[in-house]
């Protein structure tokens, strides 16, 4: 195909596909009253922006030393309903992540973020809460988009697993036990710290997620916990946002960026994901450009096939966004690039959302 034919074909293919993104942190700035999801948000140029007092000190004290602009604006100008619709996105997974300074009021903060997701649904006719496969098909038919509530760490429950059932009633359909730090349920991917796996409460959580029909997310769970979940779960799992070439290197050697993490048994872990019927969501954050994202997708296809790959953007700041995929309005560019690189329509539709749909159909109870 010539370039005009490629562009026409890719545009039609993207329009036909159910497009699902497996991770974002947009609920943080919404709950901080910095933005509303229905507005197309723009942020100032990092080169000319001056940080308010206290931001630089907060950056130095934080777990991740983001640039001040990223620390302050984080996901703003990358995720909002106008950009979802422009990018042809059907479902955006919206995670509840609690920063260290939120832990003393973890349950309240998590409920605030949940409340805001429901409020955005009430205030925007083009945006709905996704709790079933039927919801996704209907949103696609109607040309709308939806948000899927997820946990990025079980700190949102405090120490009481019973609250998982309440969050399920509020729309929770995907959940990871940890972020980087350890909690009452499991150990996260803490660099240079000797970590364990699941606690007894964490084991109970895996069982309860299987019973309720909540998709288990392995992102930020360490390798000990990974294998324990694989032994316990009765359903497919996901790794919602990951850089596969870095975290599952073919040679098993640690990249300096991930110093201190156990990157061994890479091939075994990828095969375990495939045997489980799960998928890996390819991250956009901190990738250089669109081609680097495509290369990560192709790495997973080469290693374990096209049935185990999806999108997991996790964009977090304009300074660390890939050129060509700076925000969710740019998703059609990824489809176009995959067509240019010779992937079949069937494979591309699986990458864009078909593989997530298969897992949702298997795991969700409605």
What does this structure look like?
The protein has helices spanning 3-16, 27-31, 55-61, 68-73, 81-86, 106-123, 133-142, 163-169, 200-212, 223-232, 244-247, 266-276, 290-304, 331-340, 345-363; strands at 20-21, 91-96, 127-129, 145-152, 172-176, 215-217, 237-242, 279-282, 309-311. With 366 residues, the protein is α/β, with parallel strands linked by helices. It has a single domain (3-47, 54-363), classed as TIM Barrel, CATH 3.20.20. Helix 1 packs across helix 14 and helix 13 packs across helix 14 (331-340). The protein starts with a helix and ends with a helix. The model has no long low-confidence stretch (mean pLDDT 94).
Tags for this model:
alpha/beta, nine-stranded parallel sheet, about 375 residues, globular, single chain, 9 strands, TIM Barrel
Briefly say what this structure is.
By secondary structure, the chain is of the alpha/beta class. It is built from 15 helices and nine strands. The longest helix is centred in the last third of the chain and has 19 residues, at 345-363.
Please outline the major beta sheet. 9 strands, parallel
Our estimate of the beta-strand percent is 5-15%
Q: Provide the CATH top-level class.
A: Alpha Beta
Q: Which stretches of 5+ consecutive residues score pLDDT under 50?
A: none
Number of helix segments? 15
Question: How many β-strands, per DSSP?
Answer: 9
CATH architecture: Alpha-Beta Barrel
Mean pLDDT: 94
Helix content: 40-55%
**Rg result:** 19 Å
Quickly give the structural class: alpha/beta
CATH topology: TIM Barrel
CATH H-tier superfamily: Metal-dependent hydrolases
The coarse overall form would be globular
Counting structural domains, the number is: 1
How far apart lie the N and C ends? 42 Å
Order of H and E elements:
HEHHHHEHEHEHEHEHEHHEHEHH
């Amino acid at each position: 195909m010539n370039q005009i034919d490629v562009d026409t074909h890719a545009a039609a293919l993207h329009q036909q596909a159910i497009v699902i993104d497996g991770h974002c942190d947009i609920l943080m700035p919404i709950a901080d009253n910095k933005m509303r999801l229905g507005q197309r948000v723009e942020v100032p140029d990092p080169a000319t922006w001056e940080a308010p007092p206290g931001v630089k000190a907060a950056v130095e004290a934080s777990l991740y030393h983001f640039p001040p602009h990223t620390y302050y604006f984080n996901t703003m100008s990358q995720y909002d309903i106008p950009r979802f619709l422009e990018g042809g996105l059907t479902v955006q997974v919206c995670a509840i992540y609690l920063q260290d300074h939120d832990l003393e009021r973890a349950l309240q903060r998590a409920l605030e973020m949940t409340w805001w997701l429901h409020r955005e649904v009430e205030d925007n006719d083009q945006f709905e809460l996704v709790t079933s496969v039927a919801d996704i098909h209907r949103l696609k038919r109607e040309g709308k988009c939806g948000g899927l509530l997820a946990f990025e760490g079980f700190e949102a429950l405090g120490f009481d697993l019973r609250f998982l059932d309440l969050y399920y009633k509020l729309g929770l359909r995907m959940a990871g036990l940890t972020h980087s730090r350890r909690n009452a349920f499991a150990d996260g991917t803490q660099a240079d710290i000797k970590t364990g796996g699941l606690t007894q409460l964490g084991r109970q959580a895996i069982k309860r997620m299987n019973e309720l029909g909540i998709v288990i997310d392995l992102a930020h769970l360490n390798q000990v916990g990974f294998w324990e979940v694989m032994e316990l779960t009765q359903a497919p799992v996901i790794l919602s946002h990951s850089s596969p070439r870095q975290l599952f290197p073919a040679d098993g050697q640690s990249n300096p960026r991930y110093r201190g993490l156990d990157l061994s048994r890479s091939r075994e872990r990828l095969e375990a994901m495939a045997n489980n019927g799960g998928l890996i969501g390819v991250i956009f954050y901190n990738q250089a450009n669109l081609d680097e994202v495509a290369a990560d997708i192709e790495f997973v296809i080469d290693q374990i096939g096209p049935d185990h790959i999806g999108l997991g953007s996790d964009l977090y700041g304009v300074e660390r966004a890939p050129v060509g995929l700076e925000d969710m309005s740019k998703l059609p560019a990824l489809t176009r690039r995959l067509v240019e690189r010779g992937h079949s329509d069937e494979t591309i539709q699986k990458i864009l959302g078909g593989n997530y749909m298969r897992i949702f159909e298997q795991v969700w109870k409605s």
